[in-house]
Amino acid sequence: MTYAEQLRPLDAAYLALDGPTTTGHVCLYLPLEGPVTMRTLRRQIALGVRRMPSLRRRLQHVAPVIDLVDRPWWVDDADFDLGNHVFEHQIPAPGGLSLLVEQVTEIAMTHLDRDHPLWEVHLLHDPTHATSAVMTKVHHVIADGFQMRRILDALLGPESVPGVSEREPDVVLRDAPHRAELLARSAVNNTLWGAGAAVSGARSVITSPGDTVRSVVTTPVDAVRSAVGKLVSAPQTPFNRSVSDRRAWAFGSFDIEASRPVRRRYGVTVNDILHATIAASLRDWLIGRDALPKGPLVALVPLSARQTEANHNGANRIDISLCEIPTQVTDSLARLQEAHEAMQRSKEHTWLDEHSLNTASRFFATALSTAAHTSETLHLMDLLPTPINLVISNVPMFDDVLFVGNRQVQAQHPLAPVFEGIGINITVHGYQGHLDVGIATCAELVPDADRLWQHMELEYDRLCGLG
Q1: What is the DSSP string of 138-177?
Q2: Fewest C-beta in 10 Å: which of 270, 334, 352, 464?
């Protein structure tokens, strides 16, 4: 039996994030309640891979020339070896936060090997404090926030601990088709998609004849043009420049229950409070550099496009919104209210929905990769304005507690990608009643990510006190 599945256009587009100074994977730092051994972790991950066979898939490229106009395929890795995916590290003495961050960011900025399935798990030991932590590293081509939850559940959920499941699932390896067959299947897929586009164009003849040619020929261009037309003006800041290959990272947690009184009193959400705390922190940082713009910043905010929890199709099912971040507002309560109104506006007017993203990605993924590499190499973002200041992502909470052996995972702190021209990414994971925050920045543009976290903490406490 053979198996090959072509990447969806949007999933394939995430491969363009791997550049000279950027990466396309998302990391999670998972501190444990005590030390664990490499043997315990390897045994558990091996069982998790059996429970989620898609973790054995690797990329298959048809041919270099074909890759310029088409997408690669997923095939089973016949030579899968856990040694290519699970690693162990000792934090150097005397241990502590700064050395931990140095180790984590070094791991995070090493590209995943595309000859193997695009994920890794790292076990970190701090011998001075007799603690361990796990760091996952999963490429965005495999998973959005929802899919990442499924991967975590397979690898570290209650059922993943050896001895808990009644029996280990069987693994069925499937041969990869010959490259010639993949080439033929690519041609068929593209022909079918082109026929579908032609049908859509024919329908447009009936509904609006004047737009027929434009609808048939330039639908993907229209998707991009529509997105550009919806862009708002973003002020330029010190962190909206070309990024380096060094990262700064800070992390911490908020107690969700502590914000309940202020949420009830003012009719705001956890997301509103999160955006308000980020606005206050960035305002302080920008004032410190005499660089505070007169108007709000603009954040790119991914939103899940999955209609139900059962909808597992595709690694990435997202819409993208642009949301104003009210750094121009001085008062904490007024800033919270403005953040709430900005969130409402962004939800009502999605910037790019999933369909538009897939349509544009089908035609422009290769161009995006080339443009990204060129921009990073030539530092073009030092010369060009960016319409987006930062990325903010909030991954919803799920119920399961995670374990490695009998040690419970205490938090899920993200270290998400920083993009060219956008030197800050703040990603949040909900876990066990708290919001686990990870602030990733370009170390040259924002070396003091810890300062951003400290001011987020202060503002969160201040807002909770308003309840």
Answers
A1: EETTT--HHHHHHHHHHHHSGGGSTTTSSSPPP----BPP
A2: 334
